[in-house]
Write a structure and sequence with these properties.
With 144 residues, this protein is an alpha+beta fold. Helices cover 27% and strands 31% of the residues. It has 3 helices and 6 strands, in the order E-E-E-H-E-E-H-H-E. A 3-stranded antiparallel sheet has the order 1-2-3, with no helix packed on it. Strands 4-5-6 form a 3-stranded mixed sheet, covered by helices on one side. Helix 1 crosses helix 2.
């Protein structure tokens, strides 16, 4: 019996004419990424750590906007501010702090959304040992 395989991400990366600058693309999109100044890149565009954090933020935005929304209800408005903090001398990823502003929910529901995200997000679960994440949910209260 053979295992079925599906492609869930299909990207292409290439160097550019700017030293340390790269393009990364997939079906329907292209991202410009720079190596860090420390590694000889220009450090002006999104770097690899920015892209890693962006993937976690993207997953959270998707989960918080619609999970637990009753059928027929509008999606929630969600805004997330994310930052990495680490000691200046450190040569490690650091810790990610994600401040999540979620409209239309109370504090209990906001905490439930975070707990569900932690259970279900494959990227979060693959990285949580290397990049600890602290969620700071802010609820606006129920709409209505």
């Amino acid at each position: 019996m053979s295992d079925k395989v599906t492609v869930t991400s299909n990207l292409h990366g290439r160097t550019t004419d700017v030293r340390g600058r790269y393009t990364i693309g997939g079906p329907g999109f292209e991202i410009v990424s720079d190596g860090s100044v420390r590694s000889g890149g220009p450090g002006e565009e999104a770097g690899s750590l920015d892209l890693l954090v962006a993937s976690l933020v993207s997953c959270a935005l998707n989960a918080f906007r619609h999970d637990f929304v009753e059928s027929g209800q509008p999606e929630r408005q969600v805004e997330i501010f994310a930052r990495i903090e680490r000691k200046v001398e450190g040569d490690y990823l650091g810790a990610l702090i994600m401040e999540c502003f979620i409209d239309g929910v109370d504090n209990v529901t906001a905490e439930e959304l975070v707990a569900e995200y932690k259970k279900r997000c494959r990227i979060y679960n693959a990285l949580k040992e290397s990049l600890p994440v602290t969620f700071v949910p802010h609820a606006s209260g129920p709409l209505g």
